[in-house]
Amino acid sequence: MSYDLVIIGGGPGGYNCAIRAGQLGLKTAIIESRGKLGGTCLNVGCIPSKALLHASEYFEAATKTFPSMGVKLSGVELDLPQMMKQKEDAVDGLTKGVEFLMRKNKVDYLKGFGTITGKGRVEVAGSDGAKQTLETRNIVIATGSEPTPLPGINIDEERVVSSTGALSLKQVPGKLIVVGAGVIGLELGSVWRRLGAEVTVVEFLDKITPTVDTEIATAFQKILKKQGVKFELGHKVTGVQESGAGLQVTIEPAKGGQARTLDADVVLVAIGRRPFTKGLGLDSIGIKTDARGFIPHDGHLKAGEGVYVLGDATTGAMLAHKAEEEGIAIAQMIAGQWGHVNYDVIPNVIYTYPEVATVGKTEEELKAAGIEYKVGKFQFMANSRARTNHETDGLVKVLEEVATKKVIGVHMVGVGVGEMIGEICVAMEFGASAEDIARTCHAHPTMAEAIREAAKGVDGWVMQS
Ligand code: FAD
Ligand code: NAI
Asked: Are the CB atoms for 458 and 374 separated by under 8 Å?
């Protein structure tokens, strides 16, 4: 059997590449070893985490917010098995939907593990042990990533868990220690705090969410603290010991100093993810990974002759929509069309309450690069919809490059900002200035008016505060 492209890995990068290739009339196969399409994102990532974030947000609102809104409830209780079931229903529906999309676009879906055995050859080992070899003009590596382990700490996915275990705990832990104040730690920490856990986050660096603009990260941390999350910044976890029915977590200042222990029922290790390339057969085509295990590419997603790479397996943000963009670009390039990813406009959302949404350069990055910029800011406290909804935490910050008069970064923390960032991405793709946004009529009363006000702030004419 000879293909135009064989995609190894059925995550958002791989399956979107397959759909686009199918649309373009390319003979396409996709190989996936986990038994279900959708990759990390649909099975143990974006989707189940958002299902739990959404449901736990309702639970907390019912107990904490409804009474102040004049809605009296009694007998509110957590039904954790049902909360988990609705999460699994969401995952199930979506993974089956992806399988349907493969059929619709005439993509062959092979269940099994793919290994490259030479130029244009991929061997598939099925779960039943049967092997077959596919011949192809192009190979697309879309094998994704896995949690980075913490040396010396055994992840049993019951009491010491990665994100995968933390998405399926059977009961609410009394005390949850989260290692790493990144996206996973804060999203899943939020879920379990809302459901009743006492959450302490241990972070190696002196700030949470290190890649987020510092002003936004600081405001975000303050909000999380107010919600009851405890932080041990500038600390590392050096050991986890069993102690009766619980666990004892040893932490030390990152810069050295006295060790302390913290009690925990569950420890979530969320210190990043690493590319997954085990058993892929890269040697057979002379491809080497970089020092951190990523497969490098030439700037156009080519890792070698007739070999492309995308998503978490290669460099750049480890995000589903970044993988999707790359998948589309690869399919188009193989079909002889234009393929392009604008890495300057990849949004980033942390789906906590409130959310954090960012795109483009941070102030720290602009300063380090010596790029002259102007800033406009607006606090949600002064936005009429935020005040009406009693959701006033947070702010919007718009950064404009002086030389080009183009918006170069937007950073927000606030309720619903994850949906609002789309407006900014469109504006940035069209090369908008802050004035373009400021002179665009926004519906009133909406939270998005805060973006317009912050954009006005770039040229010094904020009107609502
Ligand atoms: P993956 O989704 O990892 O898919 C790779 C697939 O390849 C896997 O299914 C794997 O089984 C398969 N595979 C690997 N090797 C082989 C082989 N040799 N043969 C056959 N199959 C193979 N990103 C967001 O943008 N938004 C979010 O809200 C978000 N939330 C997340 C929450 C959590 C808890 C986690 C862990 C991640 C989250 N992410 C989120 C990140 C997102 O899941 C990843 O960036 C995305 O899934 C990467 O897509 P991918 O296609 O590169 O790889
Ligand atoms: P992360 O890179 O976001 O955060 C890891 C944190 O752990 C960092 O703050 C880092 O300084 C800290 N850390 C590293 N080693 C440590 C140690 N030994 N002790 C204490 N702290 C330590 O990684 P995370 O949260 O595991 O997420 C992995 C990836 O998944 C992210 O890169 C993100 O792109 C993706 N993701 C995206 C989501 C979204 O878009 N909403 C949601 C969840 C994950």
From this structure: yes
For residues 245 and 424, which has the higher predicted lDDT (pLDDT)? 424
Are 73 and 207 in a shared domain?
Answer: no
Read off the pLDDT of residues 267-317 as tens digits, 9 standing for 90 and up.
999 999 999 999 999 999 999 999 999 999 999 999 999 999 999 999 999
The predicted structure's pLDDT at residue 46: 98
Q: Per-residue pLDDT for 226 more than 70? A: yes
How far from 253 is each of 123, 127, 181, 259, 356, CA to CA, in Å?
A: 48, 46, 15, 7, 28
When pLDDT is averaged across residues 71-76 and rounded to a whole number, the result is 95
Instruction: Flag whether 379 is in a domain.
Output: yes
Confirm whether residue 252 is marked as ligand binding: no
Is the CB of 202 within 6 Å of ligand 2?
yes
Whether residue 463 lies inside any domain: the answer is no
Identify whether residues 18 and 109 lie together within a single domain.
Answer: yes
Cβ of 49 less than 6 Å from ligand 1: yes
CATH of the domain at 210: 3.50.50.60
Q: Are residues 392 and 261 in the same domain?
A: no
Residue 211 annotated as lining a ligand binding site: no
Q: Answer whether residue 152 is part of any domain.
A: no
Q: Are residues 357 and 220 located together in one domain of the fold?
A: no
Distance, CA of 315 to CA of 329 (rounded, Å): 16
Looking at the CA of residue 318, tell me the nearest atom of ligand 2.
34
Same domain as 415, residue 335: no
Ordered DSSP codes for 161-179: E-HHHHTS-SS--SEEEEE
In a domain, residue 222? The reply is yes
Using DSSP, how many helices (H) and how many strands (E) does the chain show?
13, 23
Ligand found nearest the CA of 349: 2
385 and 239 in a single domain? The answer is: no
Dihedral of alpha carbons 60, 62, 67, 73, sign: negative
Domain boundary among 301, 317, 341: 341
d(CA 186, CA 209): 9
Looking at residue 127, its pLDDT comes to 83
Domain count, the chain: 3
For the CA atoms of 280, 282, 284, 286, what is the dihedral angle to 10 degrees? Answer: 170
Mutational pocket test of ligand 2: of 53, 153, 183, 205, the residue with most ligand atoms within 8 Å of the beta carbon: 183
pTM (2 d.p.): 0.98
Residues 152-193 pLDDT 10s: 999 999 999 999 999 999 999 999 999 999 999 999 999 999
Residue 372 lies in domain: 345-458
Query: Are 123 and 22 found together in one domain?
Result: yes
Nearest ligand 2 atom, CA 320: 40
The sheet with strand 260-264 has its strands ordered as 235-243, 246-253, 260-264
Gap between the Cα atoms of 218 and 411, Å rounded: 12
